[in-house]
Amino acid sequence: MPCNPRGLDQGSLIYLASPYSYTTGATVAANQLMMEWNFQKVSEIAFEFMQKGYVVFCPIAHSHPVAMYGDPDVQEDWRFWSKQDLEMLSRCDALVQACMPLWSKSQGAKAERTYADYLGMHVSYTRAYFYDIDFRLLDRGIL
Description:
Elements: E1 13-17, H1 28-51, E2 55-57, H2 59-70, H3 78-90, E3 94-99, H4 107-119, E4 122-128, H5 135-139
Parallel strand pairs: 1-2, 1-3, 3-4
Helix pairs in contact: 3-4
């Protein structure tokens, strides 16, 4: 289960930040699998918050299908998505960082946290989530 952000009432608008892609050192196939896993996992986390009564904007849950049906070439382009994401973040009551694999290395997650700090926004973190697949096996052609 995700955290209960302290100091936030049910009905608060939460921006659920998470990593999406990680291209450094990953094969294209491994990165695609990571993006899909991240999309699915953060969607589950968003639903858990919704069940607790929070209103959630989750940029990955919103943007992943938009990119797939719009232009897959912008799928990993933070410069493209930052305009959308930071505007939505500015309208939220709090940022909750989904602590998924590689979240601390995510360019987007770092920028979102920096902007939330700039806005003086409440910031919380979920429990840690881990991959249930070893992407190194995919890179070696085993999967």
